[in-house]
From TrEMBL:
It comes from the Bacteria. It holds the Pfam family FMN_red. SUPFAM superfamilies: Flavoproteins. Keywords: Flavoprotein, FMN, Oxidoreductase. It comes from Actinocatenispora sera. This is FMN reductase. One of its GO terms (molecular function) is oxidoreductase activity.
């Protein structure tokens, strides 16, 4: 991390764990992504965005658990997250926590993938009573993964969509969170592409038995 604010392009991966189509979780994901892109634009930075629907990778994530490795469909997705400058992660709320699919995806990420990586967290639920899921479940998860979690997480209850508050309270939270994530991204150098062979033992060392 540097004190300067480098310009250029950054890549954002937005992850939605919504199970339906259409999905309020996907809607919140898109709104957070748009706010982040606007925040980056204000800082003179263009953004490349890729949005991931985890429900489309559910079988591949389950395969990873039973086989111990990512298959050919899941590996590119994991690499996309590993090479992104920032992650937007949004889940529906189940039993006062994140969904099993959401947690499973981050369980199969390679260790250290999100270290020092800016992450914006969001959650949706049927009632505002579950809004503490952000601080009781999501923030501890990403802190454990050594990510840099944006100060503002956004919880959207069903009743907020389409109400007047959607254009005031919810909209303001989304804009603030997007700007915070943009500032975290701008304060860092672009993410270096992960080299899967960086820690491999040199062939000469293997021949000499010095590994």
């Amino acid at each position: 991390m540097t004190g300067a604010t480098p310009l250029g392009r950054r890549s954002i991966v937005a992850i939605s764990a919504g199970l339906g189509a259409p999905s309020s979780t996907r809607l919140l994901t898109d709104r957070l992504t748009e706010a982040t892109v606007r925040g980056l634009a204000e800082l003179g930075i263009e953004a490349d965005v890729e949005t991931v629907e985890l429900r489309e990778a559910a079988h591949d994530i389950a395969d990873n658990f039973v086989t111990g490795f990512a298959n050919s469909k899941l590996r590119p997705l994991l690499s996309t997250v590993a090479n992104a400058d920032a992650v937007i992660a949004v889940t529906p709320t189940f039993n006062a926590s994140y969904s099993g699919l959401f947690k499973s995806f981050f369980d199969v990420l390679d260790e250290g993938t999100l270290a020092d990586r800016p992450v914006l967290i969001g959650a949706t639920g049927g009632t505002a009573r579950h809004s503490l899921v952000l601080d009781h479940a999501l923030r501890p998860l990403f802190s454990y993964l050594h990510a840099v979690v944006a100060p503002t997480g956004v919880y959207a209850a069903t009743e907020e969509w389409g109400s007047a508050d959607a254009e005031t309270g919810l909209a303001k939270r989304i804009e603030r969170a997007g700007r915070e994530l943009a500032a975290l991204v701008a304060a860092r150098e672009p993410a270096a592409e992960a080299d899967p062979f960086a820690t491999a033992t040199a062939f000469e060392d293997l021949l000499n038995g010095t590994s």
